[in-house]
Design brief:
By secondary structure, this protein is α+β, with helices and mostly antiparallel strands. It has a domain of about 35 residues. It has one helix and three strands, in the order H-E-E-E. The longest helix has 13 residues. It binds zinc ion. The site of zinc ion has 6 residues, from loops. Zinc ion (ZN) binds next to loops.
Length: about 60
């Protein structure tokens, strides 16, 4: 009964895991702005932002 299982604070590992996933292309996309109009493409787009690394991407709606 001496050992205390201590994996209660995995916050750093969680963040590192997130960055690793980002490096592999697995971003955590959340919609940043809904339905913007891209003048260049001439159509509506949706902006997504990664919660981990802040990278953005746009998709045509
Ligand atoms: Zn990312």
């Amino acid at each position: 009964m001496g050992d205390v299982v201590r994996f209660k604070k995995p916050s750093l590992k969680e963040k590192a895991k997130g960055r690793t996933l980002c490096g592999r292309g697995f971003h955590k996309w959340v919609i940043d702005q809904k339905k913007q109009f891209d003048v260049k493409q001439g159509k509506l787009i949706t902006i997504h932002r990664c919660r981990h690394c802040g990278e953005t991407k746009t998709t045509a709606t």
